[in-house]
Structures are given as structure tokens and as C-alpha cells.
Amino acid sequence: MSADKDRVLSQTREHVAPHRVDVWDAFGTQLVMGRREGYRMWDLSGHELMDFHLNGGTFNLGHRNPEVIATLVAALDEVDIGNHHFASVERAALAEQLAAHAPGNLQYSVFASGGSEAIDVAIKTARHATGRRQIVGLDAGYHGKTGLSGAAGADAGARFFYSDLPDDFSTVPFLDLAAMEQALAVGDVAAVIMETIPATYGFPVVPDGYLPAVKQLAEQHGALYIADEVQAGLGRTGHLWGVETYGVEPDLLVTGKGLSGGIYPIAATLISPAAAGWLHEYGWGHVSTYGGSELGCRVAAKVLEITLRPETIANVAHLTHRYAEGLAAIAAAEPFLIEVRQSGVVIGLRVDHSDGAIYLQQELYNLGLWAIASGYDQSVLQFKPGLLLTDAEVDRSLELLTTGLGRAKEADRPVPSRHPKPKP
Q1: Cα–Cα distance between 350 and 203 in angstroms, integer?
Q2: What is the value of pTM for the model shown?
Q3: Of the chain's two ends, which shows fewer C-beta atoms within 10 Å, N or C?
Q4: Residue 212 near residue 246, CB atoms below 8 Å
Q5: pLDDT digits (tens, 9 = 90+) for 84-135
Q6: Do 3-64+310-408 and 66-307 come out as alike in CATH topology?
Q7: Architecture of domain 66-307 in CATH?
Q8: How many Å separate Cα 160 from the centre of its chain?
Q9: Whole-number pLDDT of residue 416
Q10: H helices of 167-260, where?
Q11: What's the CA angle centered on 156, arms 153 and 162, to 5 degrees?
């Protein structure tokens, strides 16, 4: 380990996140990012890695994408973050662009600095629109770490900080429509909130008809449908929005992570006219100093433009086919890989050990590829190709995966979880 890396880890233990450093030590994947470009990054020790985590899709277009950087640099010659109190050329233009490409009639955008904040906006909006409080999610759902977002879905993190809200939030199992209908039937449900493909649960395959059935149940019981597209959106399923893959038009949609291009923080809550009443009644109902900053809006507009290019869409379709073929061949030859979950370039790889994805994560790290085990299911590796990946990079990633699987199946040792149990 380099002296620089030792110093940063010591500072992090002392001043930032000691438990996080301890867990990465136990996993054997203590990464401190140094140089990065495209879909490659280098640890401060000099170790080179292909990035197949992408920070949850933040780097869909690669690290330090030259076009995105050029957009930010040009914007810095003209604007700064702006002022959230007033109308803005950049915010208006981005909101119009989002509305034009939304799944259904999502006319309005409320901007935030991150996905958790944008989820909070969606929940507040649904409550105001319906006059109800209850929110129904999935017991394996993850929507963030702020107040409302942390209490939605799996709420162990909120309970850890005594911030859970059991009277206002409930959950049901993934794919259990009977349980969903029962939860909605209480009559005080403002919204159902769903990750289009549950990410922290390991990207389970979403059967055709499931999300439309949930949307129909919500409508029957007077509840709104919130689509959490923070990870599944922005081209990863082959459509701009994951819900388009499944034929759903949500009442609200949340986007973040990749909208930033990995360059400037921005997220957004897209809202239908029927749910947007508070925007006409209380213009300061949600304010965010850095949400929808003028610099961030310029960057996000460029990200959307790149993502919607025909050549980008074609490349995602090509990557989808290449990985479907390649992963099927690997699974046929390597019994340790027991399930390939794929929707476009949203991919989960389940292995034959309850902690096996941690072992695979470590072996791939040593080989030169970074992918992360799912937080709620450590048998599943989140394997996330970037939208602009090349054939040579596809071939190399499949080669490393094959080798990593062969090594990981021999491992069997205790490992921690990234999510400790909440206090009783």
C-alpha cells in the first residue's frame, strides 16, 4: 500500500467514516480512488480497475466524460449556481426537456441536489395531492438515507437512528400482488413507491405485467405511483426510463445519480399535473439551495442529449446482446454462477453462496474490475456496464468475470454486512 493511501485511510478513520474503512478492510477491497477516466479508475496504490459499479449508475457515460466536462467549463464562463428563489433560463430549459421525454404526462420538475432529497419531494407531493399519509413500498426497496426516503422501503437504517415512521410507512414483499392489494385497501395510502428494478436487493428480474398491475391497484385505491428511477433510469434498460420497458406511466418519477454525469450534483422529481397542486399554491413548499443549480442544469441537459443519441441507444442494445450471450455461456460452464438477472445493462449475478458475491467482489478487485455485492443480498453481484462501453471492454470484463468466478467459488469465510442491524 502506498504512503498516500495509508495517509488517506488514516484520516478517514480519524475524521470521516471509521466503520466504513473497517468493512472494506474485512472485504479485502479497500479502494481509494485516484486517477480516473472513461470506465477505468486507479487506486492510489496504482492498481487499475475497470469500473462496473459506476457508483450506482452515476458514471453511466464514464468518468470525466469529455463532453460533459466541456459543458461545465463553458457554463462556468457564464453562470454560477444561480438563486433558487427565481426563475432560471437553465432550470426552465432542463424541465422542458425532461417533460418532453417523460413516460406519460409529467409536466413539472422539482430539482434537488441528490436522489434522497428528490424522493422526499415525491412523497410530500403525493401526500399533498391525495390528502393521505401512508406510503407503501417493498420490504427490499431502497430509496435513500434522508428523513422520508430512509423510512420508505427497507427501513433498518432509519430504525438505527430512531427515525423510522411505522405509522406512516408499510412494506410488502417483491412480486406479492395480494399483499400489495391488502396494504392499499386500508384506504389512507397516498402512494406506492417502487424502484423499477430493486437495486440494493440485487436487480431481481421484473416479470412482464407486475408493475402495470401495481399501478392499476394504486389507481383503484386512489393512490399515486412513484417510480424511483435513480438507478434504473437514464438509458440502462434500453429505454430512457425503466418504466417504459414495462409499460407504466407513473404519477411521479425520481431521477438522480447519472443525471449529474458524475460531474455536478443534480436530481429531479417529475410530477404529473394532477399531483402538482402545491406548485400552484405554495411556491416555497420545497426549496433547495443547490437543487437545480444553473451549472447542474447545463450538465444534466448535456447528459440527456448524449443518452438520447441514436448511437448511444444502439450501443446499449448491442451491449445487452453481447452480455446476454456472454453471461449465458459463462453460466453454462461455471455452476457457481446460478442466475443471471438482466434488463438491458442492468445486471445482477447470483452465485451459489450466501456471501459469495463478497468473495467474487474481492477476486474481481484483485484482477482489475470493480463491481459491488448487493447490500441486501450478498449472494448477488451488481454488474453494471456503462452505456458507452466498447467491444474490447466487454471482452475483457467477461474474461475477468470467468477467472473471478473460478477463484471465488473456493472461498468460504465470515464477512460483515455493509448494513448493521438496528438497535433494539
Answers
A1: 10
A2: 0.96
A3: C
A4: yes
A5: 999 999 999 999 999 999 999 999 999 999 999 999 999 999 999 999 999 9
A6: no
A7: 3-Layer(aba) Sandwich (3.40)
A8: 22
A9: 84
A10: 177-184, 210-220, 242-245
A11: 110
